[in-house]
């Protein structure tokens, strides 16, 4: 959505009573007059800061003028509004539409949390079980003759697995050739 369309959508909200006071409007006009590139000329800035005209009229004329000038000018208005009236900028209807998530869209932060809510201990436990089952299946396969190699690996593994588990595996490996 372009900034001009957003400004058209937000015009009623901005021009309604007591949303923007004169000081904030003057600051916005001055900022638009002094930024690079200059959005408002000196004559235009004086016109929109004229205290003889009502605030509602000046603000409406300013917003219409910016919409005629183009998207870049409207974008600078939003930047000035954010700097000078942050709370009002956050409450804009167009901002709420931009913040509202699409119900069909996947919320990646929530999805990431749902996938990782069990933590690293759960992952290590699952990985250990899978690795143990793979080693057990590999060693028990009758087509492979790797029992000697497995015995050597398990013989040097008191650091990796507990001593009791190693003893059980060694006894099992010794019983396999007897069967």
UniProtKB/TrEMBL annotation:
Gene Ontology biological-process entries: regulation of apoptotic process
Membrane spanning stretches: 120-138
What CDD domains does the record point to?
CARD_BinCARD_like
Does this entry carry the keyword Membrane?
Answer: yes
Q: What is its main location?
A: endoplasmic reticulum
A GO CC term attached to the entry: mitochondrial membrane
Membrane topology term reads: Single-pass membrane protein
Q: Where is the CARD domain?
A: 38-96
Give the highest taxon in the source lineage: Eukaryota
| Localization | Endoplasmic reticulum membrane; Mitochondrion membrane
Keywords for the protein's UniProt record, in alphabetical order: Disulfide bond, Endoplasmic reticulum, Membrane, Mitochondrion, Transmembrane, Transmembrane helix
Q: How does it assemble?
A: Associates with BCL10 by CARD-CARD interaction.
Report the protein name in the record.
Caspase recruitment domain-containing protein 19
The record lists the organism as Ptilorrhoa leucosticta
